[in-house]
Known about the structure:
This protein has helices spanning 2-13, 16-25, 40-52, 69-89, 108-125, 139-150, 167-174, 199-215, 227-240, 257-265, 281-290, 294-302, and strands at residues 56-61, 93-97, 129-131, 156-161, 181-184, 220-223, 247-252, 270-276. By secondary structure, the protein is of the alpha/beta class. It has one domain (36-279): TIM Barrel, CATH 3.20.20.220. Strand 5 (181-184), helix 8 (199-215) and strand 6 form a beta-alpha-beta unit. Helix 1 (2-13) runs antiparallel to helix 11, helix 4 runs parallel beside helix 5 (108-125) and helix 8 packs parallel to helix 9 (227-240).
Amino acid sequence: MEMVMRNLFQSLAKSRAANKMAKRYGLRFGAGRFVAGETIQRAIEAVRELNREGKVVTLDHLGEFVFTEEEANESADMCLKTLDAINEAGVSSNLSLKMTSLGLDISRELCVRNMRRILDRAKAYGNFVRIDMEDFAHCQISFDILRELRQEYDNVGIVVQAYLYRTMQDIDDLKELRLNLRLVKGAYKESPEVAYPEKKDVDANFRAIIKRHLLNGCYAAIATHDESVIADMKAFIKEQGISNDQFEFQMLFGICVDLQNRLVEEGYRVRVYVPYGIDWFGYFMRRLAERPANVWFVLKNMFK
């Protein structure tokens, strides 16, 4: 039953019709638990509060469906406005983005042009930009564009996903770039031809790629709510004498807040991924797919 629900939510996340319908209702039915708001003002308020709690942030202006150059440029403009707002507010946050929202599916040239606009602005502010990894179809081109951008910019990193067979090789191939990588398990529905179908294998590979990246001497953003993984990584880091300046724990806005607070109290750097914007539906569906238990939270909100 859990797998059926997961597949349903992953399918809905890709539905443009469902996304359009959801916009009519705003952040109802529990989505507000996982999304900071629909405006940059609300997002900055959330960042301020998280900063007060001793956490740093990465802001993501959500965008799921971009089909024209105009839409891609508008999405890039919102990334620029987000960087401006972070700088003007003086809050501690960097930026996360998806390259499909910048026109990757329209043309590589358009996407790279928008990426350069964003990285130039971020560099002027001394800020950092994280490229979110999307589904397997966008994996190789994302790495190719990253390599191109790293020839000009040192303030850009990317995400790698433990559920893909290729990821350990990617970790080794990227070692030379000394990248700040966010390491995640992965939230997209993929074929068993390219991804581990069993959770135990994903979990094992997740631990393995984190260790490899840390031993390579590179900065690791360990993105997980799995307390067993966190405990294992804390023990490994202590055993290897790795500095706390070489890693951070990352978690999603609204999830495992008590665990976030506990890690801050223990002296670890915790970064919270804070999404905002009107295109929240796809992101929300992927959160439900990752943890179907969240559905009960949504159902309770529906009947309030």
